[in-house]
Amino acid sequence: MKKIIQVHIYKGEKYFIAECVDLPVVTQGRTLDELAENLKEAIALQLEGENPADFDLVEKPSVLASFEIEPQYVKA
C-alpha cells in the first residue's frame, strides 16, 4: 500500500496546474496557495465514500508534490 499520493505541478499560461500520478485528479489555481486548497478538495472528493485500498493507498496518505519550473537566466 502506498503512503504517498504523488502530484506533478507546473505553470500553465494563467494558472498553476496539479496532476495526480496515482489518482485521476487534475486541478488548477491562480496561486500556489489556491492550488493547494483546490488539490486537497479534489483528492478528498475523489476518495469520498471510497475504500483507499481500492486505489492501493493507506487510510490517510500524504501528498508529495514535484514542481516543474523554467529557470530564469541572467543576461550577460
Structural account:
It comes from Candidatus Azambacteria bacterium RIFCSPLOWO2_02_FULL_44_14. The protein has 76 residues and is α+β, with helices and mostly antiparallel strands. The chain has one helix at 32-47; strands at residues 2-11, 16-20, 26-29, 57-68. A hairpin with a 4-residue loop joins strand 1 (2-11) and strand 2. The mean pLDDT is 92.
Quick tags:
76 residues, alpha+beta, TTHA1013/TTHA0281-like, four-stranded mixed β-sheet, 4 strands, 41% strand, Type II toxin-antitoxin system HicB family antitoxin
State the helix count: 1
Q: Which class best fits the helix and strand makeup? A: alpha+beta
Q: Rg to the nearest angstrom?
A: 15 Å
Strand fraction equals 35-45%
The SSE string, one letter per element, is EEEHE
Q: Whole-Å distance between the termini? A: 50 Å
Low-confidence region ranges = none
**Quick one: CATH superfamily?**
TTHA1013-like
What do the pLDDT scores average to?
92
Largest sheet: 4 strands, mixed
Task: Classify the fold: give the CATH topology.
Answer: TTHA1013/TTHA0281-like
The CATH architecture is: 2-Layer Sandwich
Major beta sheet, strand line-up:
3-2-1-4
Structurally, the number of domains stands at 1
The level-1 CATH class: Alpha Beta
Helix content: 10-25%
Shape: elongated
How many strand segments? 4
Protein name: Type II toxin-antitoxin system HicB family antitoxin
InterPro entries: TTHA1013/TTHA0281-like
